[in-house]
Amino acid sequence: MPNSVSRPPRLLRVAVAGSVVLMVAAGVLFYYAANVASEKRKAHTGQETIVTIQDHHCEPAAITLPAGKAAFRIVNASDRAVEWEILDGVLVVEERENIAPGLSQVINANLQPGQYAITCGLLSNPRGTLTITATAESEAKAKARPAMTAFIGPLSEYRVYLSQQSGLLIKAVGDLSAAIGDGDLAKARSLYAPARAIYQRIAGAAQRFADLNNAIDARADYYEKREQDPDFTGFHRIEYGLFATPASDAPSLAPFAQKLLADVTTLKAQLLAQPIAPDQLVSLVSRNLRTLADNRFKGEEERYSHLDLYGFTANLEGASKVMALMRPLVEKSAPDVQAKIDAARADFDTALTASRSENRSYDQFTQVQRQAIADRARALADALDGIDPALGLSAL
Amino acid sequence: MTDKRHLPSPERRRVLFGLGAAGAALAGTGLGCPMLAQASENKVTAAPESDRTEDRHPYQGTYQAGIVTPRPAAGMFVAFDVLATDRADLERLFRTLDERLRFLTQGGPVDTLDPKLPPPDSGILGPVVTPDNLTVTVSAGASLFDDRYGLESVKPKRLTRMVGFPNDALEEEHCHGDLTLQFCSNTPDTNIHALRDVIKALPDLLFVRWKQEGSVPAQAPTKPGEPAQNARNFLGFRDGSANPDSTDAHEMDRLVWVQADSDEPAWATHGSYQAVRIIRNFVERWDRTPLQEQESIFGRQKVTGAPMQGGTEATLPDYRNDPEGKQTRLDSHIRLANPRTPGSEANLILRRPFNYSNGVNKNGQLDMGLLFICYQADLEKGFITVQTRLNGEPLEEYLKPTGGGYFFTLPGVRDAEDFIGRSLLMATSHTTT
Amino acid sequence: MKKTLLASMIAMSALAAPAFAAAPAALDLVQPISDYKLYVTEEVGNLVTETQAFTDAVKAGDLATAKKLYAPTRVHYEAIEPIAELFSDLDASIDSRVDDHEKGVTAEDFTGFHRIEYGLFDRNTTKGYEAFANQLIKDVKDLQARIDGLTFPPEKVVGGAAALLEEVAATKVTGEEDRYSHTDLYDFQGNVDGAKKIVDLFRPQIEQQDKAFVAKVDKNFATVETILAKYKTKNGGFETYDKVKERDRKAMIGPVNTLAEDLSTLRGKLGLN
Fold first, then answer.
1. What's the CA angle centered on A148, arms A142 and A153, to 5 degrees?
2. How many other CB atoms are found less than 10 A from the CB of residue A170?
3. What residue of B is the nearest CA neighbor of C171?
4. Beta B366-376 vs B272-281: how paired, if at all?
5. In whole angstroms, what is the distance from residue A54 CA to residue B188 CA?
6. What separation in angstroms does the CA of B77 have from each of B72, B179, B181, B198?
7. Do the bridges between strand A62-66 and strand A128-133 make them parallel or antiparallel, or are there none, so unpaired?
8. What pairs with residue A68 in β-bridges?
9. Nearest chain A residue (CA) to C37
10. Which residue of A has its CA nearest to C157?
11. pLDDT value at A351 more than 70
């Protein structure tokens, strides 16, 4: 009988050693890159406020800063990926998703005087407070803000769009819920993507309502018990039930479908009740594209159904609506910005169209292909972020 | 028909000249009821007085009067169907008309007949007809050049029957005509007197098709050295700003009078195209429109008549510094009518309108507006081009054209041998008249 | 974000016209304007649906149904007149009256509702009106598409209330709109509904400026509506115009003219041009 303890074959040892070297090298490179990036950011923003996220709380839990540009370094000292948000009442002002455990990310924000809340890792963790105090500069700039009348048209049109899309969403989720209630899972699976697509058109606006949006769109790993967590609801809970669990579990989906229907109905009311300021109209969609570019391109959004491409396409449709509404203003005041936006949009559209024509589910796309989509989404987000400074929309 | 063309008797002449001299000596403002020192009895039936009744314009000239003539306070536009059955009758019409117009525009005593007969004159101006600044301008419609009188071959090239524009609500009974007369004088009564005289003289040759009277509000006399200000229309805006200068003979030759070297028939030389539009104004609605909006619809300031950039009514609008219409909107009335772009000088027209006020509609809203009259050498380059540019203008919300027509104003009556319409007849006659 | 809006509201108030203390902030108009577009979108949707049924009846030769559907269909057009008339070519094609055409009832370009009305109610026939029916349904669908693509200008929305009352004052109080069918009261109600909708959407902003004004406007609307209601029929329609008593007609004219006067100040009160 051969000796049970034997050394791994030589090739494997080399391979392992090699991969360790590679990993270390990658780590060094990553560290270097992150530092360069953060140095760059630091150069622009001055002092950083460091917030450390522990498993069940944040340090510090209360922050006070003067109005204006601020940089927050969020250090994730917990054991899972977390997101971090600044909230103004129910509205998300700034956020960063998917901060990996053990790493930190810098978030830049431009804040007006007021009282804000900050999330702290797991959604069940208590929130911190952020107090922004007025400065002479912030007061002066508020008075000098350009006239708003040019935005009445675009903002009204966007509100009509939100009303119509959220109405369609209610209908689509209603149909989905009915199919689930009837036990017709095949039909429900076919209704999932179209319903998601409608949501994705207005996701940028929906994401302003932190709690409601979590109820509708949160992914499992935001919750302590993941897919089994009782607070895990919404589209992805239904997605999990339709695409990743045995059919016998289907009856348990009905209450989640009904809750989703109730939540999207509330969403419509919220969307109509909450005004959007001119500078937010663009940042809603650019931020939405950025989450695509930074995280969702990985396929973490529709991780059971792998229908991500349709969501991305709908994100672009929603962004295009805002682009169309802003076009007259941007073309007139900053035609070079408009040209960049048009080019970036066309690129992104081409990439998505080509990807859809392959008729494969997203998990079969290569890393290179996914990165290409992400890069184009980022380019469009960057182009759109050129509007605010060009039109002088920012208060500060 | 007896020849009523008497010269006043020496006696009468003295009286008339005396009156004239007295009139010249008085400094009054014409129709504004100046009270003579003696009129102290305040009778209810006392009438307003005028020292302008002897104002007159020559009937003869290269051109007809009433076009570049300064506008007096009262106007009346009358369109007729011509009842003449043949050329002989048409000639009789023109000769009789000429006779009457010579008398009416120069003045003189009226005939007296046996009282058992109807009086030859309506008498509304009294026993002596005073000219009172009367001009009567004779024009022909496209229908006169049909197959009735053999005039087809000499119809002015651009003369057509008016076709409605998109905002029009033309009433057939207030449109077109074989022949038109534009009466202008200091008082409505003078115009009415003249019309009644013409009608009485030509019962078998003229049928009154439609008529519209109008007025121009009196202005304070122009201060020396200052440009004249235009009278206001019923929208409260000065009307006629930026009109071509009617005293500039060169401009009038360029814009208004048909020239000898044009492609029009020879007889039409020294005539002009006349476009008439009865344009109702929705005055109640206008009076409910914010002042700012009224001004941006017109493209002028209401009080002064100045363009939006300021100045006086005579200041030219400055569009070069306003390409996007931020100051004077691109769809404002004056900017559409005359965009002042290279080449648009060819489309200038001489406007000579009156305000009209008729009755009231079933809905209790007033029927008043503009009796628009303009003159140009080329109808297509002039009114038709300008109105086409105005189609769809915001002002249309307050306007409704309901009548009018296109006509050709005959050339002037040259001398005592000439008569109105003679050159037109001669252009197609085989025998000399 | 609340702070941003508050700051901009303060800025806007500082820039507001001197005659009005603190005219509403521009952004406060977004909600009523978009709500108005949602209302107009719904109305024009109804117009398309009902015009389809109406024109189908005309083309099928069903005179009785076509006559029944004529007036209720038009109400949706009359309610959205301020927006519909922004498209003057369609307005002329859909809703011009015979007066607007020199050649009268047989004018080639006299099309739309009133041309068909002439056929149905004066000539008592649908024969020969199929082409006009086809044109009408095509036009209202075109209108729907154009409205969808239109960013509603704020001054046209707010000014729309006055524009609707001008319509009533000019043509509805005298029964000149539907001269063959005499169904003017339907149109009258449509205009009034459309005007009231605009006032209601902007009520909070107007009340902020002038509470007494709103009360006066409400009272005049109520007077008009009470009189109109006297002429309602059992099935929710209206009597023909000839049934309106002279006394009632006169009683409506005063409030209508006063509403036209008052609503003409709406734009100014809200700081719009």
1. 155
2. 18
3. B363
4. antiparallel
5. 98
6. 14, 11, 6, 13
7. parallel
8. A111
9. A160
10. A153
11. yes
* Rounded Cα gap, residues A162 and A309, in angstroms: 22
- From the list B281, B236, B292, A275, the residue with the least C-alpha distance to C155 is B292
Cβ-count burial A237-251 (b if 16+ within 10 Å, e if not): bbbbbbbeeeeeebe
Indicate the residue type of A133: T
Q: What is the DSSP letter of A362?
A: G
Write out pLDDT tens, residues C184-227. Answer: 999 999 999 999 999 999 999 999 989 999 999 999 999 999 99
State both tokens at B140: 């022909």
Q: What pLDDT, in 10s, does the model give residues C221-268?
A: 999 999 999 999 999 899 999 999 989 988 888 999 999 999 999 998
**A325-344 pLDDT tens trace:** 999 888 887 889 999 999 99
Residue A387 makes CB contacts below 8 A (sequence gap 6+) with A282, A326, A330, A334, A337, A341, A393
Mean pLDDT over residues B19-46, rounded? 50
Q: How confident is the model at residue A354 (pLDDT cuts 50, 70, 90)?
A: very high
Mean pLDDT, range A22-38, rounded to an integer: 57
> DSSP character for B60?
B
Helix axes A149-181, A308-333, angle to 10 degrees: 170
Partner residue opposite A275 with nearest CB, options C10, C15, C30: C30
Q: Which residue has the tokens 């009415």?
A: B192
In the chain, the amino acid numbered A23 is: M
What pLDDT was estimated at residue C143?
Answer: 98
Please report residues of A whose CB lies closer than 8 A to that of C27.
148, 151-152, 155, 275, 277-278
d(CA B407, CA B421): 14
Task: Please report which helix (H) or strand (E) contains residue B276, including its range.
Answer: strand B272-281
- C122 near B CB under 8 A: no
Question: What number of residues does chain C have?
Answer: 273
C-alpha torsion sign, points C11, C16, C22, C24: negative
Query: What is the separation of C-alpha C159 from the centre of its chain, rounded to a whole number of angstroms?
Result: 12
The tokens describing C256, both together, are 């209508």
For residue C261, the chain B residue with the least C-alpha distance is B288
Residues sharing a CB contact under 8 Å with residue B274, sequence separation 6 or more, in sequence order: B137, B139, B180, B182, B373, B374, B375, B406, B407, B408, B409
CA–CA dist A79, B232 (Å, integer): 84
Sheet holding A114-118, edge to edge: A62-66, A128-133, A114-118, A82-88, A91-99
* Interface residue C173 vs chain B (CB under 8 A): yes
For A359-396, the pLDDT digits (tens) are: 999 999 999 999 999 999 999 999 999 998 887 776 43
Range of weakest confidence among A160-164, A386-390, C117-121: A386-390
Radius of gyration of the CA atoms of chain B, in A: 23
Question: Do C158 and C270 touch, CB atoms closer than 8 A?
Answer: yes
Q: Which helix (H) or strand (E) holds B401?
A: strand B399-409
Instruction: Give me the amino acid identity at A204.
Output: G
What is the Cβ-side half-sphere exposure of residue A313, based on CA atoms within 13 angstroms? 18
List the subunits that have 3+ CB pairs under 8 angstroms with B: C
- Helix axis angle, C30-59 to C154-167, nearest 10°: 50
Q: Which residues of chain A make contact with C41, given a CB cutoff of 8 A?
A: 160, 164
Confirm or reject contact between C151 and chain A (CB < 8 A).
yes
Measure the CA–CA gap between A149 and A101, rounded to whole angstroms. Answer: 46
Q: What is the pLDDT of residue A2?
A: 43
N residues, chain A: 396
CB atoms within 10 A of CB A380: 30
| B375 closest CA partner among B184, B222, B237 | B184
What is the ipTM score, two decimals? Answer: 0.82
The Cα A149–Cα C12 span in angstroms is 10
